């Protein structure tokens, strides 16, 4: 909390500063100003919670300052300290939000009492402000979610129209709406420019895009953009007014989206349908329209139900090329991986169209292929796993699928998998990992470095040095850790004596076992058992 003392007399400012134990009131900064003008600059910059001010000062006096504070910093608490017992001054103090009017010379008890009241009042107000803020945040967070669910039910569930329409008529002023249009803004796949910024936070993206669309729609009477609860359907616009301007508004939305996000999107529109009875029909029309959009086209970006669209064609499936890609990945040859992926992209490029449904199916196939390639191998702890690429299909800023970029990205993705499989094979065949596994399986035996090295026909020196290089700890340290970790599990069960646990994990001497256990855990075995039982 900050305090500002405003007085043209330096000794008065010093007196106030010295009379108060500021820390007792949780006040961290005590600021000073010699007149109202300099006080205004300080208030704007520092935002003090409590302000002491004199009345008679050069430049800007206390009366003018109080009036200015009421307008510019109304949440601050104001206390007047004046040498004048003047009714006009007192009246002005009360009128402009002053909490107290103290006369000079200053009484310490009166000063502390006034300060205490001001600090308590400010804290009470701040708690109320915080509570109201949290309520506003909660409302702002839950209200859009509520309308998302309500409008999703309206467009997707036949029979829900009448009940939802009555509620929406009150909330959005749709009581006189007789017809509407349903529009889907396709957000899957996302253009690369957008994916880079919002790929990890799709909810924020949909919130931002929904706000932009609603800004263009204008009055709620003209419609509302909402996020469909099925993520496959992205944003849906229910337009209820000015339907003759639909195309112009969608173009304006795309211009605004491009300005903010650096990319344009495709819209699938229904015909005009009755409201509310025809809303579900309108949504089915948008889905049918969306399924006919080809992402190989540059334009148009606005598609209407009933217009000529892409004719259904036999789907080219990734499964037909999976064996080529799998062979190339297992061989780990970059050129062969590139050729296998290029064959797939070439086949896609020969299609008359690449539709929304095609992309969704290929994403599913890609996921299966990736799982199959990695299914026999579990990554080690802390090791990076190849990304599954949430975007997967590169769209440019105009929503067009870039086959060359697709070829490059998939070649890199499969090459990354090939490299990890190669590392995995090397790891599996690496003697030092075999030694680690051997210790994991035989920790309860009386293992020595000589015995372990002999088991693998290696020198003690090599095993000791290489184990430390790979795992950053000595074999003896690792063996102790494995034994104590297993001892913890046995102790927690409560079924075995501590001496028995020691023998079960490879220690013949119970006291030595307790010493090692304490070193690694900071507790004796008995204390560990009691702690886990508690």
Q: How far apart are the first and last residues' alpha carbons, in Å?
A: 44 Å
* CATH top level class name of the largest domain: Alpha Beta
The number of helices is: 21
Portion in beta strands: 5-15%
CATH topology of the largest domain, anyone?
Answer: Alpha-Beta Plaits
Tally of DSSP β-strands: 11
Give the uncertain stretches in residue-range form: 378-390
CATH superfamily of the largest domain: Reverse transcriptase/Diguanylate cyclase domain
User: What general form does the structure show?
Assistant: flat
CATH architecture label name of the largest domain: 2-Layer Sandwich
Number of domains: 4
C-alpha-based Rg, rounded: 37 Å
Mean pLDDT: 87
Q: Can you summarize the main beta sheet?
A: 6 strands, mixed
Structural class: alpha/beta
Q: Indicate the percent of residues in helices.
A: 55-70%
Keywords: Cytoplasm, DNA-binding, Phosphoprotein, Transcription, Transcription regulation, Two-component regulatory system
Pfam families: HTH_18, Response_reg
GO molecular function, one term: DNA-binding transcription factor activity
InterPro entries: CheY-like_superfamily (IPR011006), Homeodomain-like_sf (IPR009057), HptR (IPR051552), HTH_AraC (IPR018060), HTH_AraC-typ_CS (IPR018062), Sig_transdc_resp-reg_receiver (IPR001789), Tscrpt_reg_AraC-type_HTH (IPR020449)
């Amino acid at each position: 909390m900050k305090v500002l003392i405003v007085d043209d007399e330096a000794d008065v400012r010093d007196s106030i500063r010295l009379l108060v134990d500021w820390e007792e009131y949780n006040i961290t900064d005590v600021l000073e100003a010699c007149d109202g003008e300099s006080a205004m600059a300080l208030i704007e910059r520092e935002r003090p919670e409590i302000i002491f001010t004199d009345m008679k000062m050069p430049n800007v006096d206390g009366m003018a300052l109080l009036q200015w504070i009421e307008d510019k910093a109304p949440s601050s608490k104001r206390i007047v300290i004046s040498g004048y017992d003047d009714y006009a001054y007192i009246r002005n103090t009360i009128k402009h939000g002053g909490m107290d009017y103290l006369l000079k010379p200053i009484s310490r008890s009166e000063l502390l009492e006034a300060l205490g009241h001001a600090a308590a009042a400010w804290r009470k107000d701040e708690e109320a402000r915080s509570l109201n803020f949290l309520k506003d945040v909660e409302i702002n967070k839950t209200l859009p979610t509520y309308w998302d669910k309500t409008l999703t039910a309206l467009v997707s569930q036949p029979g829900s129209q009448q009940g939802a329409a009555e509620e929406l008529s009150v909330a959005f002023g749709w009581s006189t709406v007789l017809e509407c249009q349903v529009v889907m803004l396709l957000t899957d796949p996302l253009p690369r420019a957008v994916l880079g910024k919002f790929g990890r936070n799709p909810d924020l993206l949909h919130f931002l895009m929904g706000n932009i669309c609603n800004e263009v729609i204008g009055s709620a009477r003209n419609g509302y953009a909402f996020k469909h609860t099925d993520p496959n359907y992205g944003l849906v616009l229910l337009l209820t007014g000015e339907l003759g301007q639909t195309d112009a508004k969608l173009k304006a939305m795309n211009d605004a989206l491009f300005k903010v996000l650096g990319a344009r999107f495709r819209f699938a529109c229904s015909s005009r349908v009755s409201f509310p009875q025809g809303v579900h029909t309108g949504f089915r029309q948008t889905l049918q329209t969306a399924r006919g959009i080809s992402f190989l086209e540059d334009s148009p970006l606005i598609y209407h139900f009933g217009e000529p669209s892409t004719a259904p064609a036999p789907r080219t499936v990734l499964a037909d090329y999976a064996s080529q890609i799998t062979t190339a990945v297992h061989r780990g040859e970059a050129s062969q991986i590139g050729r296998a992926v290029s064959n797939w992209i070439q086949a896609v490029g020969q299609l008359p169209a690449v539709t929304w449904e095609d992309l969704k199916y290929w994403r599913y196939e890609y996921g299966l292929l990736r799982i199959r390639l990695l299914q026999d191998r579990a990554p080690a702890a802390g090791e990076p796993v190849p990304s599954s690429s949430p975007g997967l299909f590169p769209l440019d800023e105009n929503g067009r699928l870039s086959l060359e970029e697709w070829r490059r990205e998939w070649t890199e993705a499969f090459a990354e998998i090939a490299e990890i499989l190669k590392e995995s094979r090397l790891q599996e065949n690496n003697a030092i990992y075999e030694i680690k596994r051997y210790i994991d399986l035989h920790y309860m035996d009386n293992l020595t470095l000589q015995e372990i090295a002999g088991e693998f026909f290696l020198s003690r020196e090599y095993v000791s040095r290489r184990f430390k290089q790979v795992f950053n700890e000595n074999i003896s340290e690792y063996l102790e850790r494995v034994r104590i970790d297993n001892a913890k599990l046995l102790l927690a069960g409560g079924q075995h004596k501590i001496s028995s646990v020691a023998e079960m994990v490879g220690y013949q001497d119970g006291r030595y076992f307790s010493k090692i256990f304490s070193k690694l855990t900071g507790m004796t075995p008995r204390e560990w058992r009691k702690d886990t039982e508690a």
